Amino acid sequence: MLAFKEKSEQEMEKAELAIAKSNVKKKNVSQAQDLLEKARFYYEIYDYLDAFRFAEACNRILSK
User: Fold this and answer.
1) DSSP conformation class of 61
2) pTM exceeds cut of 0.70
């Protein structure tokens, strides 16, 4: 459980930075922002596995 907590924190931080960079470039990141918000929600209710999965999906979208 703690491993997924740490992984989700790392993925969410990476997603936040990628979203900030995309906003500077005027890219549409609304889908990624939605996924990041879901990741934060699951993180807050201690569901670290789903938090990690949503943050990872967010990063996959942003890397395209």
Assistant:
1) H
2) yes
38: which residues sit within 8 A by CB, 6+ positions away?
Answer: 50, 54
pLDDT tens-digit map of 45-56: 999 999 999 999
* Residue 7 DSSP label: H
Q: CA 6, 18, 29, 24: dihedral to nearest 10 degrees?
A: 150
CA 27 to the chain's CA centroid: 17
DSSP tag of 45:
T
Nearest 5°: the CA angle 62, 64, 55 is 30
Do residues 55 and 19 lie in contact, with contact meaning Cβ atoms separated by under 8 Å?
Answer: no
